[in-house]
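Morning!

This is the sequence you dropped in the shared folder:
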Amino acid sequence: MKIALGQMCSADSHGPNIATLKDYAARAAREGAELLCLPEVAGLMNANFKVAQTQVVDAADDPYLAAAAEAAAEHGLWLHAGSTPVRGPEEKFLNHSVLFGPDGRMVAEYDKIHLFDIQLDDGKPTGESKRFSPGGRGVVVNTPLGKLGLTICYDVRFPQLYRACAQAGAEILFVPSAFTVPTGRAHWQTLLTSRAIENGAFVVAPAQVGKHADGRETWGQSLVIGPWGDVRLDLGRDGPTLGWIEIDLSDVARARRQIPSLTHDREFEVDIVETST
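The structure's back. Tokens below.
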């Protein structure tokens, strides 16, 4: 299977991001890719919540998702559109991910479960939950390309989600992301490699990169990690780019045959021991 991985520096309006999507889809098709994967907030990256409220619409009306469906159909591609904000409950957004088939039809959708609420020592609180509502269900989709597990960015710090997807059969785990520079430098590759090794799965992680129109800066370094933990593709941090890689899902079967840890889980309880010293 030939996969195209798109690294982006998404804008704070839909138009430029749709243009990048169309360009990447055409180039991926020319290179013979079967699947194009894009990063988190590929459709819209706008930290100004008031302005974003005037831009974000229901998923059925979203211009970026409509353009992704058209591009998939035009080029006969499977297209993982990364994610884009759409209207959710309680006047908040959902960080919404969609997989389109080569006929342009939506095959599966996933809403980011774990929201990025952190406080670094040298930065402001991220407060993603002030703007977004969480999803509540993991997603594994069975396609002619293989069984695909859908996740988004901060999810990667919650290995139980990836375990559940792998035990449900997922052979490729998608992690479209927009990592910050400090957390990317410290944790990005290590987290992705861990999720690949633990589950004997490919991890496909297209990323945002660079300084964005809304003032944020993202780490980049889109990666494909093999099921043995080896880096198969690294797009670096120099800016937006498109890369290609061929993968063989028999590598998943081989890794899981050698280390069948997905079948070795045991139930247990944790004892908390109090001491007097």
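Headline: Residues 2-260 form a domain with the Nitrilase/N-carbamoyl-D-aminoacid amidohydrolase fold (CATH 3.60.110.10).

More detail when I'm at my desk.
O.
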